[in-house]
Amino acid sequence: MTDAHESLDEVDRLVAAWRTERPDLDVEPLQVLSRVSRLAKHLDRARRAAFAEHDLEPWEFDVLTALRRAGKPYELSPGALLRATLVTSGTMTNRIDRLAQAGLVRRRPDPEDRRGVLVSLTDTGLQRVDSAFSGLLRREHDLLAGLDGPDQRTLAALLRTLLAPFDATSSN
Predict the structure, then answer these.
(1) pTM greater than 0.85 (yes/no)
(2) What is the chain written as a DSSP string?
(3) Is the CB of residue 117 less than 8 Å from the CB of residue 109?
């Protein structure tokens, strides 16, 4: 009986075909990055399904989770939401408007800045984001079911190392 780690997958077949067709090229990066790309597609589907179960779009989940992670009173300035979600000011204004219309967030004047506002989760928003996050984690656990705890931690460390240069340039 062969170990699951030893069985061929679609990427192995793709790499073998490229090695035959282009023996002059080092196609080894495909071993990792094609798998990461395929996994990203599965993760995107799982996330969209988890959000849809709770009547949320991915962008709504992003804003609501930024507020939820802020801790009680689950409130941030629009500027802090911009930094947390990496969208433009106009986009964030539109998103806050839509979430407020849906009853998931509310605005209130910022007591520290007369010109500013704070955006906070409503009770409905809090319940919705907590439920969606629980659903997302169930799906993500399923995606990682083929790896035990130590393998998951090893993979996380390797991916952290791989992503570090990209994260460093995006934060500058």
Answers:
(1) no
(2) ---GGGS--HHHHHHHHHHHH-TTS--THHHHHHHHHHHHHHHHHHHHHHHHHTT--HHHHHHHHHHHHT-TTTEE-HHHHHHHHT--HHHHHHHHHHHHHTTSEEEEEETTEEEEEEEEE-HHHHHHHHHHHHHHHHHHHHHTTTS-HHHHHHHHHHHHHHHHHHHHHHT-
(3) yes
Pick from 113, 112, 132, 111: which is nearest to 121 by CA? 132
Query: What separation in angstroms does the CA of 75 have from each of 51, 60, 66, 151, 159?
Result: 21, 15, 9, 36, 31
Q: How confident is the model at residue 172 (pLDDT cuts 50, 70, 90)?
A: low
- 52 pLDDT more than 80: yes
